Amino acid sequence: QVQLVESGGGLVQAGGSLRLSCVASGSIFSIIAMGWYRQAPGKQRELVAAITSGGGSTNYADSVRGRFTISRDNAKNTVYLQMNSLKPEDTAVYYCHTQGSVTYRIPEVWGQGTLVTVSS
To answer: Which DSSP symbol is given to 4?
Structure first.
């Protein structure tokens, strides 16, 4: 069973940077795609960024493209979200996620979330 644990959230001023980390348990990390979602108060959860299992392909929400970078280190079972030029509207709880794998019978998993607050 995969477990995801996020860290790195906090309070930052507008224009600042934060790096979120998500460590996955288990030995299957390198074969699963990963993503970061966020949910702001009163809003639906939305996809922020995603990365394929090998890290060769990424995609981003329009609202963060050019400011955020998703990456992964399969040797450390870790996926990162580097967030630069932060804006107050980036304030949200950020969740690490994997859709798992039907082929390898790995279920969908969410992390517990880490709060990012951007002050103006």
So the answer is: E
